[in-house]
Specification:
This protein is an alpha+beta fold. It has 17 helices and 12 strands. The protein has one domain (about 15-410): Orthogonal Bundle (Cytochrome p450), CATH 1.10.630. It has helices at about 25, 30-40, 60-70, 100-115, 115-120, 125-135, 145-150, 150-160, 170-180, 190-215, 220-225, 235-250, 255-270, 270-280, 285-295, 325-330, 365-380; strands spanning about 45, 55, 75, 140-145, 300-305, 310, 315, 320-325, 380-385, 390, 400-405, 405-410. It has a 5-stranded mixed sheet with strand order 1-2-8-5-3, sandwiched between helices. A 3-stranded antiparallel sheet has the order 4-12-9. A two-stranded antiparallel sheet has the order 6-7. A hairpin with an 8-residue loop joins β10 (about 390) and β11.
Length: about 425
């Protein structure tokens, strides 16, 4: 998804806005639309050609309200627009599609397992993954950062989950297919066949892995899920499968796109890269600004439990509400000069990891991984240059980049003559 600075609202016809269309995020530009919606229609209704409908909220405060209040908005009927109006068979079983108190009883033990303390015990996995992902930077030649970054989450999340390394490449592709079934680069059949097929593949895969843990107990995340006792009892087999899928999806479709968006931003704002090179103490805030800037999870969806009013608009019970995180993270009421990329910005209130009960359970892992990646990149690279066209992912869920060719010059190596 392109990240631009809106110049005004006159060119945006709100009656023709289509935030559902994945093509908008591949070749279009949602930022002028979001800017106009925040100003003129912060609660915006859209009806699709097939009769399905949803409301969009684009302001930070409204986003927080919808994501935080499970008494007014439920996650159990589906959390992504690609499931709009179809329900979610994982509702009440997968943590991401479950409301408190059930959600809380599932989240708390998993959050402890993914705490910084526990992750530090497995830091060697991250160190290895970082070095593998950035190995092309050591050659000082042209390489595709997006392709290299795509495999990065699997190198540590896959290891944490105990997934055989031989399966990592296919699972990396499969998770991208699941969130971008309209992108021809990741299609296997049309979009519907791709989505149905890859869901069957991933669920069958994790079903086998869960069954294997029953006979071969292991100290990995899948084994941990088999031993979890939320509400005093074990998770059902299908619930473990759904949560394996959710954990892997969450890691694979967010972390790499923060790195690629950061490097894109540095290409457009080289002074900020030089600033980071001069002061490595800015690594942590640079990662937070990268999270705000990229907002890789583009939206989350909820359904209204009762009639509610948002921004003076009455939303009927049972209607879907999409929260656009990329818009909320550009809200002028919260972020000063929101279209300025500033690695020293204080961004504590960004919503890149969501908000409320469903705040990303893997946020600590993502932050540690991104800080290690950026630290290594800054240590390795003195200069970055674009080396080809950027290709954006065709998805209304993930704001991502599938190809980013760059040329890097290693720190301490003279420029080629």
């Amino acid at each position: 998804m392109r990240i631009t600075v809106p110049t005004g609202d006159a060119e945006v016809d709100l009656s023709r806005v289509d935030l559902f269309d994945p093509e908008l995020y591949a070749t279009g530009d949602p930022h002028p639309i979001w800017h106009a919606l925040r100003r003129h229609a912060p609660a915006h209704h859209q009806r699709l050609a097939d009769g399905r409908e949803f409301w969009s909220v684009t302001r930070h405060a409204d986003a927080c309200r919808v994501l935080a209040d499970h008494t007014e908005f439920t996650s159990q009927r589906g959390t992504l627009l690609n499931a709009l109006g179809r329900g979610d068979p994982a509702g009440g079983q997968m943590m991401a599609a479950t409301d408190p108190p059930r959600h809380t009883s599932m989240r708390e033990p998993l959050a402890r397992e993914l705490s910084p303390h526990r992750l530090n015990q497995r830091r060697h996995l991250l160190t290895r993954a970082v070095r593998q992902a950035l190995a092309p930077a050591r050659d000082g030649d042209v390489w595709d950062l997006a392709v290299a970054a795509a495999g990065f989450p699997m190198s540590f999340t896959g290891a944490l989950m105990g997934i055989p390394e031989a399966d990592w490449p296919r699972l990396t592709r499969a998770t991208t297919m699941a969130i971008a079934p309209d992108d021809t680069e990741f299609q296997e059949g049309d979009s519907h066949i791709t989505l149905v097929g890859v869901h069957h593949e991933l669920f069958d895969y994790f079903s086998s892995e869960v069954t294997r843990r029953r006979t071969e107990p292991s100290d990995d995340l899948i084994g941990f899920l088999t031993r979890m006792r939320p509400d005093g009892g074990p998770l059902r087999h299908d619930a473990i499968v759904y949560n394996c899928y959710s954990l892997l999806l969450g890691a694979n479709v967010t972390t790499p796109h923060v790195l690629t968006a950061l490097i894109c931003a540095f290409l457009e704002h080289p002074d900020e890269f030089r600033r980071l090179k001069a002061d490595p103490g800015l690594i942590a805030p640079a990662v937070e600004e990268g999270l705000r800037w990229s907002s890789p999870a583009n939206h989350f969806m909820r359904y209204a439990r009762t009639d509610v009013t948002i921004a003076d608009q009455r939303i009927r019970r049972g209607t879907a509400v999409a929260v656009w995180l990329g818009s909320a993270n550009r809200d002028e009421a919260v972020f000063a000069n929101p279209y300025r990329f500033d690695i020293g910005r204080r961004t504590e209130r960004h919503l890149a990891f969501g908000y409320g009960p469903h705040f990303c359970v893997g946020a600590s892992l993502a932050r540690i991984a991104l800080r290690m990646l950026l630290t290594e990149f800054v240590a390795l690279v003195d200069d970055i240059e674009p080396a080809g066209p950027v290709r954006h992912l065709k998805s209304n869920f993930v704001a991502g980049i599938s190809h980013l060719p760059i040329r890097t010059r290693r720190a301490g190596r003279p420029a080629a003559s």
